[in-house]
Amino acid sequence: MRTTIASLAILLGTLLGPAGCQNDPEVQARMAALADMPGITVTIAGADLDHAKAQAISKHIEGKAGETTAAMVRMKKDSEGESSLEIELYANSLPSGEALTADLTSAFPELAGATISIAPAIGGAAGDLPIIEVSKDLSPEEAKQEILDQLQAEGVDGNVDVKIQDSAEGRRIEVKVDKHEIH
Predict the structure, then answer these.
(1) CB 2 within 8 A of CB 133
(2) 39 closest CA partner among 128, 131, 126
(3) How many domains is the chain built from?
(4) What is the reported pTM?
(5) Residue span of the signal peptide, if any (predicted)?
(6) Cα torsion angle, 125, 89, 39, 14, sign
């Protein structure tokens, strides 16, 4: 059994049910569903956020969506040292922009002076990310190594962190690629 996931930045989601290789019709149907999944992009500028706070905000936003499939979190700094946080979230149901903005400023007082913009995500959950196949028969450590090997083979560079949790609902995989680019 294999599960196909798209990865880079962070992929959040519970992976359920059997799957096959990339040419398997079941996997192709899942990838098509990911491509058509509704998404939003939340951009927060003007707030000094560390990685832990960015993750807390991302998990909070994920909790407001129904059946999250993927979330990509990007922290950016421009040449003047100003930072912004961008969270791209794909889920079966998404909160409205106004409600989410109000909820974020209420839950995170440090965002009160920040500029929060919410727009539809462009490109679908699979986007241009590499396709990674993970055998469900592997232990979490073996699956982690399989993901790392495939990302390296795809030419993904940066600091890669993979977290895998097994639960009664299935397997949850988070892949984080931390890259520092200067533009």
Answers:
(1) yes
(2) 126
(3) 2
(4) 0.61
(5) 1-21
(6) positive
Question: Is 70 within 8 Å of 14 (Cβ atoms)?
Answer: no
Domain that holds residue 73: 39-120
Asked if 133 and 173 sit in the same domain, the reply is yes
Domain boundary among 96, 120, 144: 120
Q: Which two tokens stand for residue 2?
A: 């294999």
Q: Is 23 left (phi over 0), alpha (psi -120 to 50) or beta?
A: alpha
Q: Which ranges of 24-131 would DSSP assign to H, the alpha helix?
A: 25-36, 51-64, 97-107
The amino acid at residue 179 is K
Whether residue 167 is contained in a domain is answered as yes
| Domain identity same for 81 and 94 | yes
